[in-house]
Amino acid sequence: MGRRFKCVVCGRLFPEGQGVFIGRGGLTLTFHSSRCAYKFLKLLFERADERCVLDTARGLVSELERVVELRGARVQKRV
Ligand SMILES: [Zn+2]
Question: Fewest Cβ atoms closer than 10 Å to its Cβ: which of 12, 17, 38, 66?
Fold first, then answer.
C-alpha cells in the first residue's frame, strides 16, 4: 500500500496521487479535496495579516486578468 496523507481540514486519509498539496517554506498542507482546500484558503484569507494578503491578492487578480485578456485576444485572432 502506498503512502497515505491526512486532510488538514477534515482529517480524512487519502492515498498518494489524490488530493491537493500546497507547500512553502518547509510547511506542506494536504487536502483530500478541492472543497477542503477552498475552506482553508477562505480562512487563511480572512485571518492573515491584511496588509500582506490584500496586496498579494490584488497583484494576483490583475496578473490573472492580463492572462484572460491575452487568451481572449488569441481566441479572436483564430476566428
Ligand atoms: Zn478534507
Answer: 17
Contact by Cβ (8 Å): 2, 15: yes
Sign of CA dihedral 43, 45, 51, 52: positive
Q: Structural domain boundaries of the chain?
A: 1-47, 49-79
* Separation of CA 58 and ligand 1 centre (Å): 28
User: Which residues are placed with Cβ below 5 angstroms of ligand 1, an ion?
Assistant: 7, 9-10, 12, 32, 36
Per-residue pLDDT of the chain (79 residues; tens, 9 = 90+): 689 999 999 999 999 999 999 999 999 999 999 999 999 999 999 999 999 899 999 999 999 999 999 999 887 776 5
